[in-house]
Amino acid sequence: ALDTLPSPQRQIVNWLHALPPSAERNRLLEYFEARALAGPDLKELRRLWRGRTSLPTEQWPARLAEFMEAHPHPPTPATSSQPMTPEKEEELECIGWVKVV
Fold first, then answer.
1. What is the model's pLDDT at position 89?
2. pLDDT per residue over 27-85, tens digit each?
3. Helix 23-34 and helix 60-70, axial crossing angle in degrees, nearest 10
4. Distance between the two ends of the chain, CA-based, in angstroms?
5. CA–CA separation, 21 and 13 (whole Å)
6. Cβ atoms of 67 and 48 closer than 8 Å
7. Would you tell me the crossing angle of helices 7-18 and 39-50 to the nearest 10 degrees?
8. How far apart, in whole angstroms, are the C-alpha atoms of residue 32 and residue 9?
9. N or C, where is the chain less crowded by C-beta within 10 Å?
């Protein structure tokens, strides 16, 4: 839902909805409405959105497309019959180590 998106992302979605329909606009909407951005991606989007007045409006869709290409959404995990969380300790797998100093 739109209200779960962070502020700059929600504003971009609203801005895109105000544009005339086009393949590019639809592709951008698909990306920006799909899921909330977070972390460094959201930080960069905020910076980009704050600087929007420095670009002519007609260049915005291309600039948003560049952002979209540079920040792809992680793939959605395929639903499988296997549970996402291990049932037994033997099913746990180490995926990384962290050394705390």
1. 64
2. 999 999 999 999 999 999 999 999 989 989 899 999 999 999 999 987 766 554 445 55
3. 50
4. 42
5. 13
6. yes
7. 50
8. 7
9. C
Q: Both tokens of residue 88?
A: 């037994």
Q: Is the pLDDT of residue 19 over 90?
A: yes
Rounded to whole angstroms, the Cα distance separating 97 from 101 reads 13
The residue length of the chain stands at 101
**By C-alpha distance, which of 11, 10, 69, 71 is closest to 41?**
71
Q: Say which residues have a Cβ less than 8 Å from residue 33's Cβ, sequence separation at least 6.
A: 2, 5, 13
Provide the pLDDT confidence category of residue 86 given band limits of 50, 70 and 90. Answer: low
Average pLDDT value for residue range 6-11: 95
H runs (alpha helix) in the chain? 7-18, 23-34, 39-50, 60-70
